[in-house]
Amino acid sequence: MEDLRSDPRWQQVVSRDAGADFFYSVKTTGIYCRPSCAARLANPENVRFHATSADAEEAGFRACKRCR
Question: Fewest C-beta atoms under 10 Å: which of 6, 11, 37, 47?
């Protein structure tokens, strides 16, 4: 499994970058968020990245209620 901590997108999630143009999902919660979401930071081992919200939903995740 790849270590996401070296992925620039993970750094955007950590810094809650509002300009980031992707979504990330958390497999343990079944949700997806924008990098700018104020939700608790997920364990990087459980994170997957998606280009669009439709991609995340197609992968079986639902939108985060906090940043919807």
Answer: 6
Q: How buried is residue 32: exposed, middle or buried, by Cβ count under 10 Å (0-12/13-18/19+)?
A: buried
The DSSP result for 36-59, as a single string, is T--SPPPPGGGEEEESSHHHHHHT
- What pTM did the predictor assign? 0.89
Task: For residue 67, indicate whether it is catalytic.
Answer: no
pLDDT digits (tens, 9 = 90+) for 31-68: 999 999 999 999 999 999 999 999 999 999 999 998 76
Residue type, 68: R
Compute the distance between CA of residue 43 and CA of residue 68 in angstroms, rounded to an integer.
Answer: 21
